[in-house]
Amino acid sequence: MDPVTVGVVGSLLLFVLLLLGIPIAFSLMLVGFLGTACLASIDAALPMMARTVYESASHYPYTIIPLFIVMGTYAEISGISRDLYETFDKWLRRFPGGLGMATIASIAGFSAISGSSVASSAAFGKVAYPEMRRFNYSRRLAAGTVAAGATIDFLIPPSLGFVIFGMLTEQSIGKLLVAGVIPGLILAAAFMVILYVWVKFNPDSALSSPKEVSWKVKVAALRGIWETLVIFLLVVGGIYTGVLTPTEAAGVGATLLFIITAAKRKLTTKTLLASLYESIRISVMVLFLVAGANVFSYFLALSTIPMKMSMWIGGLPVSKYVILAIIVFIYLVLGCFLDAISMMILTLPVIFPVVVKLGFDSIWFGVICVLMMGAGLITPPMGLCVFTVAGIAEDASLEEVFQGALPFVTAILFVAFLITVFPQLALVLPGMMGR
Amino acid sequence: MERLDALREKLQTINRWVAGVGACFLIPLMLITAADVVGRDVFNHPIPGVIELSQYLLAVSILLGLAYTQQIKGHVGVSILVSRLSARAQLMVSLFGSLLGLFLFILLAWQGLVVGLEKKTVSDMLRVPQYPFRLLVAVAAFLTFLELLIDLGSSIQKLGRTES
Asked: How far is A79 from chain B (nearest CA, A)?
């Protein structure tokens, strides 16, 4: 049989299985296995599956995934989120929507030590949401700010999004992580502008602000950020200078947070066990997805579809930016239905070769992808960050959180546009890296 | 029926414990990574074989957590269409899904055993044999298979109830 035909049939079968709600990892593995059995032989396909599972579960660079996740959970337990919020609150409270801005700024700070958006939406759902509600911020504004703000965590390193992208495309994870710093800060600034505009045009949504505090108090409050700063400098500085590999940096960061959390006496057997279970659940989910994707990619490569597809799209007589816009649009739509990681795993094997063929920079495209993964975390009907915030903020309904987060999607698209026009924003830091 | 429920609960408890043991391996994984950095950059004495140790530690925690992740339905799927179906149709679909999963994991358990037993490889520096860790694939797949059997059983049970 023609390999392309088998590839198309396999992809359709995958689509049907996904629609039936079969776990994505299982669907990928099953179709990949059947397809490989068809195109190569059953004797090749059978052991390939078992080998891929072991190799995905024991690949050294992947140790970064559980390490980044425990960093996030320890950071959440340690109460650093509260310290950060209290600091930024003192500095930003007088602006229109100032508590929201403080939330965005402290999430950006928290992102520097946490690798998962869900951890930061949970942490700030507990810390910042009640505070904003206390000062009569509308439920929509308060919950939307926390949910959308958590997407910053995907861009500012440590970040799981870049790790996944790097794993799937074999790009340098260190460079990707460093590339996210500036776009992440721009995104935080863009979120604050959105808050400012929102509150200017709807003063009812943020009725009151807390009283101004003296400069002395403001300066004293800066103490609340030193732990975050130290960990960030060690972890990201270590990667940037090339002293540490990303995995080593994750190990150092996790150990430091572990010690800080223990020193603050926040680490009980119960919280530790809960964070370990949480970390295992996410790591297994991710790595089994990766194993499934690897089995499927094996089959896809045999079908020659990715190669032919990128040749065809690369030969289309349209501007490469039109194709990029289409890709971004596809991600925006897919992000509504798929979780961020599955979205990358399902699309990158085909889309990445196309993007490279079109002559885009692969690190730069990583930043675009992670931005779109972030958008997927807050767009309805499936938005992981929104679900988390709605679960914690008891008085806000799921709809309210989705509506509140939606205006921030424009900021994400704006940043994607901005770094397309000025790719240097993403590429200048990785270009100067030590290694 | 009660004996079956007791068995099911026992199995789920075992899988939770297995995952808990696997999860605890994340702590040494974290510590040796950091200790290696400190040892290398500060004392000029890296930990020998830290990469292969990390690989084994990761394999243990991930593979032992596989069945538990199935138990708590931690493997993500797309629910957009299925959630709109009738309760009965949803059960049929989940029954079909369990059957596919059973097929996949019995293959994995069998092949995990075959591939595991034929591997004679040892790790580069510490000469730790690889096959015990490879065999964990078979163990993990078998435990997940049992979890899927539980899912299948409960789907059938519920289907029987909707019919009567």
From this structure: 21
